[in-house]
Protein: HAT C-terminal dimerisation domain-containing protein
Organism: Acanthoscelides obtectus
Amino acid sequence: MPKVAPTQWNYNIRTVSAVFENRERLIDCFRELENKCDKTITSKEAYGLRRALEDSDFIFFLTFFHKTLPHVAILFNQFQSRNKDSVQLLKDIDVFEKAIVLIRDTTEDIQQTVENEHGDNGNKRRKVEPEERNCIIAKEVCDIIIVQTKERLSYRGHLEAASLLDTQNFTNYSRYFPAKILNSVVTYYPMVNKEKLKTELEVMYMREDFKNITGGLNLLSLLTNNNLEETFSEVTKLLQIIITTPMSTSEAERCFSTLKRIKSLLRNSMGNERLNALAMMSVNKSLVHNISNFDEKVMEHFISQKDRRLDFTYKH
């Protein structure tokens, strides 16, 4: 079963799916542990997990999140794509919201299915009936998801501006200029001269030397190093806005996933000092590659740090 990872959201979704699809087998497994490990801590833990898997409330919310989380994963992957423009993202958000609304409207059906297949726990002490309470909570969860989606994704000006200067799109933009995206960007950033920016972009889209540049920072460096800031003044202004605007959570997940994987793997077995050094190496890997004989220098450094029983230094 996939473990829950704090930095990789897809593992949380995979865990819910794994429990939902293998619930009966997990119950059989825990029951077997109860019988073979009688009156032990393992037996008690297996009993508690089995009771949780058989609880109708747990089954309801497991089913509910099994239906909901895949839509979250799809939207997440759509926002990770570099080929999406703002118009497509708006459509993706609309499809996502409609899917969540549909799940919200079918919470009673989910509850009825759980009752028919698994029965009730017999807990009559609650003031509100369990099925009514579960449906209310599930609907509130759907409402929160929809509201948070609208709030967090309401501002997309930096994404649209970035799409104008994504060099992977330059070939298509040279044939079909993205007028709608330009109009939207000017609305978000009124300090930009629309006509001058359009002229500069048209020139940039036609030139082959700009199409080989990756990233807004590299593109800005190219303009600066070749004294083209005045020639492409509006593009320079837009690039400065883009590279200083914080991206969304999904953008950070896409750009810094390597560091997160390093942290997830090593934080339990490595001190903060060494972990920070490893993170710095990951950030500055291009600098490391340019150092001649880097591996040999690292080995010589550690060999000479303290006296060892064996002599690892080769002597002529």
Observations:
- The two ends are 54 Å apart (CA to CA).
- The mean pLDDT is 78.
- The CA atoms of residues 57 and 134 lie 7 Å apart.
